[in-house]
Amino acid sequence: MSGAMERAKQWARRIKRDVVALWIAARDPRTPLAAKIVAAMVAAYALSPVDLIPDFIPVLGYLDDVILVPLGILLAVRLIPAPLMQEYRAAAAARAGRPRSRTGLAVIILIWLALAAGLAVWLWQASWLWQVI
Questions:
Q1: List of the chain residues with pLDDT < 70
Q2: 30: DSSP letter
Q3: Contact status, residue 104 vs residue 45, Cβ threshold 8 Å
Q4: What is the pTM of this model?
Q5: pLDDT value for 132
Q6: Are the beta carbons of 47 and 102 closer than 8 angstroms?
Q7: What is the CB neighbour count within 10 angstroms for residue 57?
Q8: CA separation for the pair 103, 111 (Å, rounded)
């Protein structure tokens, strides 16, 4: 059991390092444009202090952390040339702290506000609801 736990911890450390490496890659002019866009999106989301799907929602809350972020990292890493990715990983490992993404936070808040506004409009226009109330 402890072997599996140790592998999970190492995997989590690699994910955290790669997120920071992608944050660095998104700011480097040597990164190809497609890789830069994917890296910026993945890093902004992963470093945002707020999740698109809150963790308290059963199953779905952890789906983004366990599946979407690693798949995004995998795609971005494949788009970045291997020597550059090695350099970004080394720079990420040397960093003392983890950056925060205010952009990711702002985008997620805007998505939640748009969903809330859409729900409010739908409820306002739902004639069947007014008949029930």
A1: 1, 96-98, 100-101, 127-133
A2: T
A3: yes
A4: 0.69
A5: 62
A6: no
A7: 11
A8: 12
